[in-house]
Amino acid sequence: MYTLQFTATTGCHRRQIASMPTSFITLAIRIIRVASLHADMKYNYCFLAQIITCICLLGACKGNAEPEYNNQFFAFGTIIDITIYGMDKDRASAASGQIEQIFLDIHKSWHAWQESDVTRLNESIESGLPVVLDRDLALLLKKSIGLGIQSEGLFNPAIGKLAELWGFHNDEMPAGSPPDYESIQGFLQTSPDIHSLVLDENKLVQYDRNIQLDFGGIAKGFAIDIAIGHLRDLGINNAIVNAGGDLRVIGRHGNRPWNIGIRSPRGNGILASLSIDGDYSIFTSGDYERFYEYEGKRYHHILDPRTGYPADSMISATVMHTDAATADAAATALFIAGPEHWYSVAREMGIRYVMLVDSDGKIHMNPAMAKKIHFEIEPIPEIALSPPLQ
Fold first, then answer.
1. Which pLDDT tens digit goes with each residue over 158-198?
2. Domain for residue 128, yes or no?
3. 165 Cβ contact list (under 8 Å, min separation 6)
4. How many domains is the chain built from?
5. CA-based angle 298:300:301, to the nearest 5?
6. Prior bond to 379 cis, omega within 30?
7. Residue of 173, 198, 373 whose CA lies nearest to 292
8. What contacts 129, CB < 8 A, 6 or more positions away?
9. Tens of pLDDT along 222-254?
10. Structural domain includes residue 209
């Protein structure tokens, strides 16, 4: 059985299809590969995604001895998938409805550019006003400050003005030329840093007025952690919460582990898979998620706070960790760190499982991750294995 991280391009949203036999995954991949060979079909990936979803759901329904409940809804700009295993439909449906409301409330409260608690917080910071936060936002900010320090500043939610400068604070992708050099250098001279924030319980007592917070690199993970905690409070111990391909699993899929497919950063196939049981989060940051092209060059949303430009030495970074918020932030930080520095940053952040794909297609990972990964493509790319992460 597989949980497939499937991303349809050209405006389609990611969909995670839970609990399907390997044969159905193989069929889905073949459909994608055949379609990609025909230029006249490339425009119709959304239709293909619907076909594949139907195939996979048929596979998921076949042979399940225990009940499995699936629900999808839209939040955080993506499809959220909830899969609950071994729970009767009524209880699972009620739990899923509560999780949906949690996500919708958090999405509304933490939005980076539409009116929200975060935009109001940024207005208070810019004005130099006293700042009192609600409990969840205070916890999110405290977690962000700690992870920012551990990541050596590569995870830096204080650079919201830079994301705005690049045009990523918009529901639509940017168009036209990137920001000019002078504008980026002007931003860098202000050096907004998450380290400069000081919290006293729920009060922000010290801050730099140049800071504009954007929690896009951690909010999904933090929300998933809240959702999993709520499911456990309800007595649910076997489930997946998947936010656009970034997910956390708990328990098992009956008598077998959950099997997770990791999307190839180039193309529509699966790069590798993982068999997971217990409690783990898997998050991937990639240059294919939000980007635009100008004069043949790709500009994506993962911005290096040191240079002001999109990080360009990696195309994807996958992290596995028990805590979804940590995995979320670490995937961003390691993507920015690049092939020369990811190892030291991973150690500082307490990460034990890492797989990265650099701009040449080379795989970088640590031995513990290599033991868990099964590559689904041939030939297997060149692999650079690091020393153990301890």
1. 999 999 999 999 888 888 899 999 999 999 999 899 988 99
2. no
3. 179, 183, 184, 187
4. 1
5. 170
6. yes
7. 173
8. none
9. 999 999 999 999 999 999 999 999 999 999 999
10. no
